[in-house]
Amino acid sequence: MAELAALEDPKARQVNARHGDDHGVNLGRLRTLAKRLKTQQDLACQLWQTGDTAARLLAILVCRPKAFERDELDVMLREARTPKVHDWLVNNVVKKNPHAEELRVAWSADPDPVVASAGWALTAERVARRPEGLDLAALLDVIEAEMKDAPDRLQWAMNNCLAQIGIDHAEHRARAIDIGERLAVLKDYPTSPGCTSPYAPTWIAEMVRRQQDH
Q1: 116 to each of 63, 87, 109, 111, how far by Cα in Å?
Q2: Three-state SS for 25?
Q3: What is the rounded CA–CA span in Å between residue 82 and residue 35?
Q4: What is the pTM of this model?
Q5: Which residues of 37-75 are buried (b: 16+ CB within 10 A; e: fewer)?
Q6: Which contacts (CB < 8 Å, 24+ apart) does range 31-38 have?
Q7: CB-based contact 95:76 (threshold 8 Å)
Q8: Angstrom distance (rounded) from CA 147 to CA 138
Q9: pLDDT by residue (tens digit) across 14-30?
């Protein structure tokens, strides 16, 4: 904890605060520290228990993702509080855990929109990597009905799933683009030069173009 406190940078904290994250540690330095510590599951659990955001991010980097039980991950996700801890937990731990599919189904149906957004993030990954057994048309039905009025983080995750369906599944592409155009979610999202807009129709068109270029 003392080492983490020494890495604190007020400027980094200001930038992170704009995204809802309450820590001031440069993530490159955090990763360097994690490399030195290597995998330590017990330490990871202790770091998580502190409740400190930087400590939790470090915990995610040094934990053994497959070591967590389903209920432990469920509690951790609900405790995650900040967007960065939430995203890292889903992407670096839950996706590599044997209970990921069970949690995907449970979280997608959760009344808490932040928890539900984790379910949608896991669904987007399945759409891309192993779509067998997913009802893509039914997913598009839910997105069409609910994405427009969903809270920010849930809306973002649903939009990712919409784009992923359009990018990876040509037979659903026209409908995915149509839903994106009608709902116009993230259409005016500020995008840096050289980056692809998260607006689904633009994003789908750009990724499909890149695939065809290869």
Answers
A1: 24, 13, 6, 7
A2: strand
A3: 23
A4: 0.93
A5: eeeeeeebeebbeeebbbbbbbbbbbbebeebeeeebbe
A6: 31/61, 33/3, 33/4, 33/7, 33/58, 34/58, 34/61, 34/62, 37/62, 38/62
A7: no
A8: 14
A9: 999 998 999 999 999 99
